[in-house]
Amino acid sequence: MKYVAILGLACCTLVPVVSFAQAERVLKPEEINERALVDLLSPEATVAPAARKTRAISVTRDESSLPAAKPAAASLLIIFETNSASLTPKGKQSLDVVGRALNSEKLTAYKFAIEGHSDPRGGEDYNLRLSQARAESVVGYLEQSHQIEPARLKPVGKGPTQLLNPARPEAPENRRVTIKRLDN
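^ that's the sequence the OP posted. Answer follows.
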C-alpha cells in the first residue's frame, strides 16, 4: 500500500481553487508541468494587483485596503512509500519536473522552504519526525538529482498542524510537502 504526500506551493490566482481549509488546489502527477511551476513560483506571481502594469486608466486607491499578495506557490501530489520518507518512482517523476523548474532562469536566484506535513494518525511526535524526514527526502532528491545547491532548500517538519482537509484528517492532501519561495 502506498501513501500520498502533497508538495504544496500556493498561488491561488493562477490555479483553480478547491474547497479545502486553505483553498489550495492540488495538482496530481499527470497535471504537473514545468512551465506552470515556473509561472507559479516566479516573482511575478506575487505582485499585488494594484502594482501590476495594465493599459487601463489609473485610479488612486488606498493600498492598505487591498489584500496582501500570497506567497508564490503550487500544490503538488508527491507519492511516498507507506509510513516512510522513501519516494516512489511516481514521486521522483513529479520531483523531476520540480527540479527542472527550480533550475530555470527565472527561479535560480531564489531559496525555498520545503515544509513536510502529515495527517494526525500515528501520534504527534511520530508525525513530526515523518514530516521532517519527508521534507529532507525531497531536498535530498532535488540536490542529488538536479544539482540544486543545498543553501537554496530548507527542510522543515510541520507534522499534523496545518491540515488542508480537516473534515477528513486521513485524506491524502493532508500528507504533503509544501514548497514556498523565500523572498529574503
